């Protein structure tokens, strides 16, 4: 049974009980007022009846009644005599009672009760009868009983009609209330139905953008707003998870692609070395396999030359794989929430070391540095090796995408932060590529291999900047040239007044190779 039907039944049951109680109360009030009015009228009419007595020829006492002209025609009276017989006898009746040929029932002498009322139906006619004892005025002895009755057919019919009306009105009200209750319950519970539908659609995963309409300020409205906030959070969490899964799939796919190329090159060169230094060499083996004209065998010098070229290719691809694995390790650390060790660092010697070592990197562009006066006395809290790696990523990208022109390293000071900027006059970055330059394996070139690298450098740079609570500013001009600036918060803590000797092992930052 649905909540809507249960609520309607409860409401209808309570309404039915209220209607029954109300009907009983109304009927009781009307009944009491009607019967009370009749009884009062009977008492008043009894006072209008003149009762007398006389002795007949046999010496018996006979009771006489005489009604006044003002006696209501619906009132009938009779006198009961108990002087000769305790069971009593009717001495006299009013004319209207005689014309009907009926008699009121009366009690025996011992059953006389002063002022008693009772109802009686005679020949199908309902009466309410009032009884009054008759006494002798000289000694107060009870000699008879006066019964005054009123015909109550009209009143009984009225009360019967009233009962019928109350029943019909009650049933009609109950049916109407049931129908209206169903409608109101459905309307009141419609938001809950919408919540259920939304939950079912969310469960099926068909529409996470679904929101439940409704701005009411009642409990349903509060529930709706709470669920909308929950759905919004679920949608965000789902989108983040979906984006993470897609990124992971792209990551695995791109990593496989990047690793497949050097592995294929290494495998091809190994096969070449095996053939070059095999006993059959290129001569007889090819004759047997291809049935072609015999080719002269390679000389020792030619074998050595081919071997050197193959080993050089293997070495290059191995270094490339090493860089890729290191980059993947850095990104894995980033995903795992790895926190780098940080300490106060003087920026001036760090930047000077980077500028010196960058001068030895292979390049075609001019390398321009400085001035670094703004770094005098400036310290930041960070990791020296990772900050150097971040700068080398920007510098190597500048060399890579600047076939001619210049790559420049500059510094800027803005209140409580210091900016390290690497700019170039190279090909620049397209506006459409700007939002994705920090995505893993993303490169502006559609086909891989047009430029060296793995597309992981800027992703690592972004992670390093985040670890140092730094911000990255990227600018690119349509006519060419880009600028990468990392803004580091300055450390204003006082320097210790004593020397500290440190000994640590740090991973070497490559001089000529950087992802």
From TrEMBL:
Q: Which UniProt keywords apply?
A: ATP-binding, Cell membrane, Kinase, Membrane, Nucleotide-binding, Phosphoprotein, Transferase, Transmembrane, Transmembrane helix, Two-component regulatory system
Where does the Histidine kinase domain lie? 254-492
In alphabetical order, the GO MF annotations are: ATP binding; phosphorelay sensor kinase activity
Annotated HAMP domain ranges read: 186-239
Q: Which Enzyme Commission number(s) are listed?
A: 2.7.13.3
Q: What class of enzyme is it?
A: transferase
Report the PANTHER family cross-referenced here.
SENSOR HISTIDINE KINASE TRCS, SENSOR HISTIDINE KINASE YKOH
What is this protein called in UniProt? histidine kinase
């Amino acid at each position: 049974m649905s909540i809507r039907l249960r609520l309607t039944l409860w409401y209808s049951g309570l309404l039915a009980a209220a209607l029954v109680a109300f009907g009983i109360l109304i009927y009781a009030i009307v009944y009491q007022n009607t019967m009370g009015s009749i009884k009062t009228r009977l008492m008043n009419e009894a006072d209008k009846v003149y009762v007398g007595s006389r002795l007949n020829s046999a010496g018996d006492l006979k009771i006489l009644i005489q009604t006044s002209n003002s006696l209501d025609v619906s009132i009938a009276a009779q006198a009961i005599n108990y002087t000769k017989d305790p069971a009593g006898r009717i001495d006299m009746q009013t004319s209207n009672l005689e014309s009907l040929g009926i008699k009121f029932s009366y009690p025996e002498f011992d059953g006389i009760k002063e002022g008693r009322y009772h109802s009686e139906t005679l020949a199908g006619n309902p009466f309410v009868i009032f009884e009054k004892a008759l006494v002798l005025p000289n000694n107060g002895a009870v000699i008879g009983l006066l019964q005054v009755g009123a015909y109550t057919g009209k009143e009984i019919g009225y009360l019967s009609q009233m009962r019928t009306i109350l029943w019909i009105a009650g049933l009609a009200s109950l049916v109407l209330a049931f129908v209206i209750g169903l409608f109101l319950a459905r309307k009141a519970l419609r938001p809950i139905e919408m919540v259920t539908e939304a939950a079912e659609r969310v469960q099926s995963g068909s529409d996470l953008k679904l929101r439940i309409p409704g701005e009411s300020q009642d409990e349903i409205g509060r529930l709706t707003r709470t669920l909308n906030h929950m759905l919004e959070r679920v949608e965000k969490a789902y989108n983040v998870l979906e984006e993470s899964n897609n990124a992971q799939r792209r990551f695995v796919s791109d990593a496989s692609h990047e690793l497949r190329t050097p592995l294929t090159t290494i495998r091809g060169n190994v096969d070449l070395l095996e053939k070059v230094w095999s006993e059959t060499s290129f001569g007889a083996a090819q004759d047997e396999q291809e049935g072609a004209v015999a080719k002269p065998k390679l000389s020792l010098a030619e074998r050595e030359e081919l071997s050197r070229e193959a080993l050089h290719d293997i070495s290059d691809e191995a270094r490339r794989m090493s860089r890729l694995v290191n980059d993947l390790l850095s990104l894995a650390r980033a995903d795992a929430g790895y926190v780098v060790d940080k300490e106060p660092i003087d920026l001036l010697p760090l930047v000077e070391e980077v500028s010196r070592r960058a001068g030895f990197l292979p390049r075609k562009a001019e390398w321009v540095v400085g001035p670094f006066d703004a770094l005098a006395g400036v310290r930041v809290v960070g990791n020296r090796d990772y900050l150097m790696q971040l700068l080398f990523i920007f510098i190597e990208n500048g060399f890579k995408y600047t076939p001619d022109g210049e790559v420049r390293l500059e510094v800027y000071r803005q209140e409580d932060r210091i900016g390290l900027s690497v700019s170039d006059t190279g090909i620049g970055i397209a506006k459409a590529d700007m939002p994705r330059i920090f995505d893993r394996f993303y490169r502006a070139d559609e086909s891989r291999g047009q430029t060296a690298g793995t597309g992981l450098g800027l992703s690592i740079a972004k992670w390093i900047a985040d670890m140092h609570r730094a911000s990255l500013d990227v600018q690119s001009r349509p006519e060419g040239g880009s600028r990468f600036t990392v803004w580091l918060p300055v450390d204003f803590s006082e320097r210790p007044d004593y020397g500290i000797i440190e000994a640590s092992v740090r991973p070497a930052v490559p001089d000529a190779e950087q992802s």
